[in-house]
Amino acid sequence: MENTSKIINKLANKYADYTANNLSKLVQIKSLSTSEKNVQLELKRQMKEAGFDEVNIDGLGNVIGRIGTGKKIIAIDAHMDTVDFGNLDNWDFDPLSGKIEKGFVYGRGTVDQEGGAAAFVTAGKILKELGFDKDVTIYFTGTVMEEDCDGLCWKYIIEEEKIVPDFVISTEPTNLNIYIGHRGRMEMEVSFKGVSAHGSAPERGKNAIYMASRAALEIENLNERLKSDDFLGKGSITISEIVSDSPSLCAVADYAKIHLDRRLTWGETKESAIAEINEIIKDMDAKVKVLEYDEISWTGKKYGMEKYYPTWKINKNDYIVKKGIETYTKLNNSEPYVDKWTFSTNGVTINGFYNIPTIGFGPGNEVLAHAPNEKVPIQHLIKASAFYALFPYII
């Protein structure tokens, strides 16, 4: 195995330009959620060029490449959709440039998270070159719609494609650390029903905005007393939008609505989060609901799920974590840092709903995710390629 790790490291370095150029091609294709068609076709082309045993696009639009036919099933996942650019004045370069310069690949998606996909394409190329023959099947998944709805793609893969891995590696950015969980999240909406009256006599009505405002202040206080976990940190809640309506601007508002972004730490659930809001609005003419995601993918497939994404974490002593640490150590002659993501990933479904052992290992620093001037070090791409290639030998 020591010899295998040395060979893989050598090949990952040999193919550094190949990996960077593949990533550059992906980055140059704008790929917002539900509009990933062109980037998916490019990823499929790259997988085929690398010699994967099989490459398909499923009904939702996920690209699924396979190497091997063994009994043990591994999946290595990268979502291919990105967020938009934001204010272009904040960028020092074209977000779609994909330029390769000074040891980096630049552009939207280099970190979050097409860099992971480019690295696993190279890993597949290495595995084929080495004649990988272990009793393992490896699925390389370029997934869709993650930015809009974390884990929806994997709900489809597991429930509709019937692919249920024994282990999963998420290639979301970890700065080359091993991540083993993150807080969950959910999106809630609270609507308030008022009674309109002429603005000259507001006492005749019931102002929905005032109700929403009182609730908002209580929600601000709620944020301060939410649970905390030694590993995942504290739960949080914030209001990200407030809207209202009235018969006119000379009338009492008879409707208001607030949108809540709730982050869930260990021990917090959908039910407990809803109960907290119901306690705040119990004396108001108001109701809370968890929102639904139900959109049409680039293939024309309509598919959705509730916008509740469970908290998940796995134990540092779990088999997959130990094997991840072993893989990293054999390649780098040092042990990795084990940590968690701040943001949310497809792990909410893979582990949160289906309890499939999952770790994260990806190129790039998550602080650049969704930020201007996104870039990934080519050295990270090299190390990630080597990790994804060696892991199937170790597991």
Task: Report on this structure.
The structure is a single chain. This protein is an alpha+beta fold and about 400 residues long. It folds into 2 domains: about 1-180 and about 310-395, Zn peptidases (Aminopeptidase, 3-Layer(aba) Sandwich); about 185-295, Alpha-Beta Plaits (2-Layer Sandwich), CATH 3.30.70. Helices cover about 30% and strands about 25% of the residues. The chain is built from 10 helices and 22 strands. The chain has helices spanning about 1-15, 15-25, 35-50, 115-130, 150-160, 210-225, 270-280, 320-330, 345-350, 380-395; strands spanning about 55, 65, 70-80, 100, 105, 135-145, 165-170, 180, 180, 185-195, 230, 235, 235-245, 255-265, 285-290, 290-295, 300-305, 310, 310-315, 340, 360, 375. The strands form 7 sheets. It has a 6-stranded mixed sheet, covered by helices on one side. Strands 10, 13, 14, 15 and 18 form a 5-stranded antiparallel sheet that branches. The protein has a 3-stranded antiparallel sheet with strand order 4-5-22. A hairpin with a 5-residue loop joins strand 16 and strand 17 (about 300-305). The longest helix has 17 residues, at about 210-225. It is elongated and about 80 Å long. The N and C termini lie close together (about 10 Å). The model has no long low-confidence stretch (mean pLDDT about 100).
